[in-house]
Amino acid sequence: MNFLSINMNDFTAFIELLKSQGKVQVLSSPRVSTVNNQKAVIKVGTDEFFVTDVETDTNTTLNTTNQSVNVELTPFFSGVALDVIPQISAEGDVILHIHPTVSEVSERTKSISVSTETSLEIPLALSSIRESDTIIRARSGQIVVIGGLMKDQQTNDVAKTPGLGDVPMFGKLFQHQRERKTKSELVILLRPIVTSGSGGNAWNEQVRQSAERIGRMQSPRPDTTRR
């Protein structure tokens, strides 16, 4: 994982710099407040429930056997989570303990035998996690950039001639397969601001201005094409 501290007033300039290197998508722009040495947590994603335990009970009465199945479900988080613990030094700098996590959960079906004649198809969770842990030191108002959480993805695209590409036996002659590889990187921008007393009003104003700037960047640009 890589990180650096930069002297900028807001995130907009650095996001524009990232756009010059490739496609950029802003996943979230949350703001949280906490106190010294207390954890702040940010989570952007969804929880999905998967089976984590299966119990079967068998009861036999009057030559009759009854079976019951108890299924336990557990939530699995998919998305981006960020834990930050700030510590303010005597010089007024902020020491940040940062723990970002990127998790992706997919479904995998497994067959479980309940009895000699009965089986269950259970949807299980297959989790992929990318995480890191670091401690950095920054000044109040300074932007911290964290990167290095990479992801490689490979997809196969199939292009075919309409109609002819679906002909049995000979359809593959009119098809073209293309392998596409993409690489993405999660970049986290943090800006710790130390506030005390009336300084909270200034912080709220800075948050409002930053939200407006990022909102304008995410808004679609007007079509200027002459018709």
TrEMBL record:
A biological process from GO: protein secretion
Residues in Type II/III secretion system secretin-like domain copies: 18-194
InterPro entries: Bact_Secretion_Sys_Channel (IPR050810), GspD/PilQ (IPR001775), T2SS/T3SS_dom (IPR004846)
Name of the protein this chain belongs to: Type II/III secretion system secretin-like domain-containing protein
Lineage: Bacteria, Pseudomonadati, Pseudomonadota, Gammaproteobacteria, Thiohalobacterales
Region (Disordered): 200-227
One Gene Ontology cellular component: type II protein secretion system complex
Family named by the database record: Belongs to the bacterial secretin family.
Domain of life of the organism encoding this protein: Bacteria
